[in-house]
Amino acid sequence: MALFNKVLARIGIGAAKVDTKLYKDQLTAGSKIEGVVEVYGGNIEQEIDSIYLQLFTSYVREVDDKKVKQDVMLNNFKITNPFVITPGETKQLPFSFELPKDTPITMGKTRVWVATGLDIKNAVDPQDVDYVNVLPNKMVSAVIPAMEQLGFRLRQVECEEAPRRMRKRLPFVQEFEFVPTRGPYFGKLDEVEVIVQPDGQDQYELLIEVDRRARGLGGFLAEALEMDETLVKTTVHERDTAHVKSILDQLISKYS
């Protein structure tokens, strides 16, 4: 019977199981994510080489002119040394790590999750997935209402593959796409895309792409050649969030 149980455990039947419980599933990037990993022994004694936590999100990239979704690991954590779990035993292993500051917020189609896995020799590695709700940081919380006050509506939030010149640690950026629905930019602009990236302690880099509406033959030619788009960049400190509306207005009006 013991040999039979070992064979079953190797294919995941009657083997150890894992369940991660997050103390909080609503967090801001840069804050601590804490919880406990519970490991439940199966029908036989098994040696666990390691327990790992991997933080994931996904982004859109183009492959052969088609948009595909690509998962990407934001961080990887090993939380224990090798140990043995006996049949029916339960082990609780607390953990704590920082949610990276460049973790995208979970708006639109963006999802962020923690994948937990047990590394077991000669057996199927059990896994568990827990989703995290990443709330807007101080800068994003200031940018969205500021754009709305300027007459824009947030149309889409999406993580997209970034050109190499715009990449930092990650291969993508999170874009906030706004369209004018009223105010001074209505009828002048097609859309404005804003990218908010952490840039050192308590400051952020704002990349703003202004897409001007085509006017006349010259305008349509410019739009066809994507010459109607202007990308501008500025750095804003957290203490200046109260002035974000004015900063955005000046930059957008200059290039609209």
Automatic annotation (TrEMBL):
InterPro entries: Spore_0_M. It holds the Pfam family Spo0M. It comes from the Bacteria. This is Sporulation-control protein. It comes from Priestia iocasae. The lineage of its organism: Bacteria, Bacillati, Bacillota, Bacilli, Bacillales.
